[in-house]
């Protein structure tokens, strides 16, 4: 069974969805995107994802006039799985010539598809395996705050990590950690949590901001500041975060164990808080269903 995808106003089987070769997303990576998990139809940090999409669209000057929530709802209903992630991409559109200069009033190309996922951190937290990582030079462009589709540097960073037998690349720009190839980064030193400041070299993660809220509510201090690469060596804990992975412990960096090489106590605490947040999302959804009689 082919998944059903959305392309420019239509829902079609994936193998029938085709993009013109002159689409600027295809030619230049002139496009932005989001990846949004939905658990039982409820979007994880949906408003934050939509705000970040708007931020990316504004930054590159693409105007999108579309009811995205309705689009997501239809897409999810057409595809199997209680939990699905939606990939949404908006490119500037198609032009007859391959030219950097873009015309006014182009019709953006909108593509979305969904795929089944598990809830991040589903199940017993003591079964969560630590992630192995290596540091890699951050070779991305200067506007990583825009969630743009040109991900070649991320692809190569992850390839470098895999060639070294590691699962994740931690990116280093001029001696400072920025984030992972597709995730944000946290460090724990002597019971205090740190995460790199968000600027044009980092993507403001929706999961990162949730973790900051959860930590604050639990009275656990977290400081946003530039983090020198060397601090990885002494860190008591390292975590990565993203919508699809939640918050995971990094237990090895550049072949060396992080502290004792097992997930740390503060990670366990924040992972429990994250799990509770996910459970509350589901409960709220059931309540809404009851109230609207759609259960
Ligand atoms: N990536 N930093 C980068 C470079 C990312 O690509 C991502 C997410 C994040 C975390 O953002 P969030 O918590 O909102 O998912 C940080 C998605 C999952 C992806 O590209 O697949």
Explained architecture:
The structure is a single chain. The chain has 295 residues and is α+β, with helices and mostly antiparallel strands. The chain has 2 domains: 4-116, D-amino Acid Aminotransferase, Chain A, domain 1; 125-280, D-amino Acid Aminotransferase, Chain A, domain 2 (Alpha-Beta Barrel). The protein is built from 7 helices and 16 strands. It starts with a strand and ends with a helix. It binds N-(5'-phosphopyridoxyl)-D-alanine. N-(5'-phosphopyridoxyl)-D-alanine is lined by residues 35, 179, 182-184, 203, 205-208, 241-244.
Salient structural properties:
single chain; 295 residues; alpha+beta; D-amino Acid Aminotransferase, Chain A, domain 2; 6-stranded antiparallel β-sheet; binds N-(5'-phosphopyridoxyl)-D-alanine
CATH topology of the largest domain: D-amino Acid Aminotransferase, Chain A, domain 2
CATH class of the largest domain: Alpha Beta
Could you estimate the helical fraction of the residues in percent? 25-40%
> For the record, what is the CATH homologous superfamily label of the largest domain?
D-amino Acid Aminotransferase, subunit A, domain 2
Query: What is the H/E order?
Result: EEHEEHHEEEHEEEEHEEHEEEH
Question: Number of helical segments?
Answer: 7
What does the main sheet amount to? Answer: 10 strands, mixed
CATH arch. level architecture of the largest domain: Alpha-Beta Barrel
% residues in beta strands: 25-35%
Radius of gyration (Å): 20 Å
């Amino acid at each position: 069974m082919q998944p059903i995808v959305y392309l420019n106003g239509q829902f079609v089987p994936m193998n029938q969805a085709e993009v013109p070769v002159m689409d600027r997303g295809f030619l230049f990576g002139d496009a932005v995107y989001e990846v949004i998990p939905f658990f039982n139809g409820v979007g994880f940090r949906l408003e934050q994802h939509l705000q970040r999409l708007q931020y990316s669209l504004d930054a590159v000057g693409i105007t999108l006039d579309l009811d995205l929530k309705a689009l997501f709802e239809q897409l999810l209903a057409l595809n199997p799985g209680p939990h699905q992630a939606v990939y949404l991409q908006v490119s500037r559109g198609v032009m007859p010539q391959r030219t950097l200069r873009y015309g006014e009033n182009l019709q953006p190309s909108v593509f979305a598809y969904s795929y089944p996922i598990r809830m991040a951190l589903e199940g017993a937290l003591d079964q969560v395996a630590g992630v192995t990582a290596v540091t890699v030079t951050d070779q991305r462009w200067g506007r990583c705050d825009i969630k743009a589709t040109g991900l070649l540097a991320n692809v190569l960073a992850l390839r470098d990590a895999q060639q070294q037998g590691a699962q994740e690349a931690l990116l280093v720009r001029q001696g400072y950690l920025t984030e992972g190839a597709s995730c944000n980064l946290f460090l724990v030193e002597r019971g205090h949590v740190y995460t790199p400041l968000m600027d044009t070299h980092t993507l403001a993660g929706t999961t990162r901001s949730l973790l900051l809220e959860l930590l604050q509510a639990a009275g656990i201090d977290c400081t946003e500041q530039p983090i020198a690469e060397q601090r990885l060596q002494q860190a008591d804990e390292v975590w990565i975060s993203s919508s699809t992975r939640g918050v995971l412990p990094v237990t090895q960096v550049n072949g060396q164990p992080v502290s004792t090489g097992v997930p740390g106590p503060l990670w366990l605490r924040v992972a429990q808080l994250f799990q509770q947040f996910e459970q509350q999302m589901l409960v709220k959804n059931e309540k809404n269903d009851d109230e609207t009689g759609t259960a």
